[in-house]
Design a protein that fits this description.
Elements: E1 3-10, H1 15-26, E2 30-37, H2 43-58, E3 73-76, H3 113-128, E4 130-134, H4 150-163, E5 169-171, H5 179-188, H6 215-227
Parallel strand pairs: 1-2, 1-4, 2-3, 4-5
Helix pairs in contact: 1-5, 5-6
The structure holds zinc ion.
Zinc ion is lined by residues 203-205, 210-211, 213-214, 216-217.
Length: 240
């Protein structure tokens, strides 16, 4: 029997997964956050953001005890993706700029990524008696990422449930909303303090400041505009 209100969470250190962590903690879940280092251009920067967000919550007087590890869990998967070709990877071409819907943004797809991540999360969850794996996928990802679509999440949930003999389910609470919607909803959940969006990292490029031009930055800036808040992170050329 798995423990109720427990989740092993995929956490990049980006906006969506940080909002997801915030949602689970505020709702009283015990959480194991897991960061995957898989060889993408922005992975090292995401990893730094993940550590910052982890520390914020671990030190939180009300929510800290719900994080169930003493050290942030980072899993290195470079070898598993060594032969995968994508512009998102260090070995790939340039990161395209513009909206996610644009045809060239498909160059940033990393085939199989969420399926591989989910399998590892499920292994951790089942072995430790955790009830859920948590994914921050949302409706806005659907246009180009097949492993972020509703049908995929439903099929994945069935697979994870079968493979763990009914012990683990998939929680993807943002699947019906877009990035702006999930951000707005999370900013309103401030009864234990605000979600630390200023610590997150979204840009796909391998550089300190976010570029403000890649698909990921573009969508993030639109989400903050929708939520009625200025994005507090630093961008190149003060784009914000
Ligand atoms: Zn960017």
């Amino acid at each position: 029997m798995s423990k109720p209100s427990t989740v092993v969470l995929a956490m990049s250190g980006g906006l969506d997964s940080t909002c997801l962590l915030h949602n689970f903690l505020v709702r009283g879940f015990d959480v194991i956050p897991v960061n995957f280092q898989y060889g993408s251009k922005h992975n090292a920067w995401e990893g730094v953001a993940f550590q910052r967000v982890y520390k914020h919550y671990k030190d939180h007087p009300l929510l800290g005890e719900q994080i169930q590890t003493n050290l942030p869990i980072q899993i290195v998967l470079d070898a598993a993706f060594r032969y995968t070709e994508s512009n998102l990877m260090k070995t790939g071409g340039e990161i395209p700029e513009g909206h996610y819907e644009a045809e060239n943004m498909k160059l940033t797809v990393v085939p199989g990524r969420n399926t591989i991540f989910a399998s590892i999360l499920a292994s951790i969850a089942e072995s430790r008696g955790y009830s859920y794996i948590g994914l921050g996928v949302h409706r806005g990802d659907h246009a180009i990422y097949p492993d972020c679509r509703q049908e995929y999440v439903e099929a994945l949930a069935k697979t994870i449930n079968l493979s763990t003999d009914g012990k683990v389910d998939v929680a993807a609470p943002f699947i019906g909303t877009d990035k702006g919607g999930l951000l707005k909803r999370t900013l309103e959940m401030d009864q234990h303090g605000p979600c630390p969006v200023h610590l997150t990292r979204t840009c796909y490029k391998d550089q300190k400041n976010s570029c403000g031009k890649c698909g990921s930055c573009t969508e993030r800036l639109e989400a903050f505009e929708f939520a009625g808040m200025a994005d507090p992170i630093e961008y190149d050329n003060d784009i914000n």
